[in-house]
Amino acid sequence: MNITIHRGLNQIGGCITEISTATSRIFIDMGQNLPGNGEKTTPEQDKAMVETLFQNDRKKYEAVIYTHVHEDHIGLFDYVPKGIPQYLGEGAKEIIVEKYRLLCEADKLSGNDPKTNIRKHAKLKAFHTWPRSSKPEPFKIGDISITPFYNCHSIYDSYMFLIEADGKRIWHTGDYRQHGWTGGKLLQLLKWKATDIDVLITEGTMLSRNDECITEKEVAFKLENVMKAFKYVFVLASATDIERLASINLAAKNAHKTLFVCAGLANNAMRIFKRRESKQPGDLFDFNPRYYKEERHLETMKKRGFVMVSGVSQFDRVEVLHRQLPEEEVLLIYSTWDGYYKEQAQVEQNPGYKMFREAFHNVVDIHTSGHASRQTIKDVIETVNPKQAIIGIHKDEGQTLESLGLKGEIKNKIVDIEKINL
User: Fold this and answer.
1) Which of 253, 217, 252 is nearest to 233 (CA)?
2) What's residue 233's pLDDT?
3) Which of 29, 100, 300, 317 has the most Cβ atoms closer than 10 angstroms to its Cβ?
4) Does the predicted TM-score (pTM) go above 0.85?
5) In this structure, what are the phi and psi dihedrals at residue 98, rounded to the nearest 5 degrees?
6) 2-55, pLDDT tens digit by residue?
7) Close Cβ partners of 189 (under 8 Å, ≥ 6 residues apart)
């Protein structure tokens, strides 16, 4: 069995990992480069790169398997050649199909050419899936066996993979964390399932950052406190991050404020999350937001106060409401990565985050990373303790797993090379 890291050794995002045998191969993720990470490319260059990947070293059995639906992991799916099956978790597929359905609707309303999003929507609907399960079943691409294990990340329905072929076992972590609502059993899972592993491939996003990764429970507590201090609260957050939405939902309930959304994706995503994840009324994922309609809700909202979740695409709607409220009683909670408004490459790519933030007088940042802390990465490596090699991907250029202070034989297994033959 061979491992090729096409992208990810020296950049965050844009991940593409190939695992192959004599007859079969899979690609884990087909990600778009993030602003400021990796080479800046045009769509034409991305398409040519993906086509080249599939033209070289063809196998009888091939597929692309996705860990989750962040753009830096799935963004190049449209360039995968026709006839190559693509796989995704059931819940993740439902969310991204809904996202592109809404994009198609937006194209029609705005008069934009809908062809690209219609094509992408149709292609996503054809994805193969696996069900979310506490006892996942493996599926096969030729002689390669893949077993998906649900993990905690800042987007819904993310997975780690156990890959088996040629008598070898690889564990690919995808993006993960331990400090989210559902992340507490990470090491227990690895002790049970990531056994007798030959190669561990782990993300290393936080290697260059010494940020404190507070828990989502602590995020919810901080959110609640500031929600109680202001009558009108806007929260800038991702519509697909089920755990952050759960923190916001819990905080709004405890602050005795009605939760509103003003975007179709956030509204529909919460409905999907509730149907798939809520076990009983009042639990963590029991979402019941109100979809904001000015003519129906405005006067009641002015009187009683509110919490409103929004994305940057809804800035115009938010600003219209914002202008009708007394500034001293309005708060924006910025609840996503601060690099979107601090880092120049990010601001140039999408100025909406900075613009959104600067439109408010009262602003507070309440956030925690969707990625594993340095300590968690170290714990994962020491728990799995693979027999042959440890590969760090999804990490800044110049960063290495050796900075974690691993000792002895484990440290000696760290490799930063593009190809490994097992």
Assistant:
1) 252
2) 98
3) 29
4) yes
5) -65, -40
6) 999 999 999 999 999 999 999 999 999 999 999 888 888 899 999 999 999 999
7) 149, 151
User: What is the DSSP code (8-state) at residue 361?
Assistant: S
Question: Half-sphere exposure (CA, 13 Å, Cβ side) for 154?
Answer: 17
The residues with which 203 forms a beta bridge, in sequence order, are 393
Residue 46 corresponds to which tokens in the numbers above?
Answer: 């991305």
Give, in degrees to the nearest 5, the angle at Cα 234 between 230 and 238.
140
Please calculate the CA angle 340-343-346 and round it to the nearest 5 degrees.
55
For the stretch 162-188, pLDDT in tens is 999 999 999 999 999 999 999 999 999
In the chain, % of residues over pLDDT 70 = 100
* Type and span of the H or E element at 352: helix 352-358
For residue 136 the two structure tokens come to 């996942």
DSSP 65-114: E-S---HHHHTTGGGSPTT--EEEEHHHHHHHHHHHHHHHHHHHHHT---
**Nearest-angstrom CA–CA distance, 64 and 20:** 12
Q: Angle 168-164-407 (CA atoms, 0-180°, nearest 5)?
A: 55
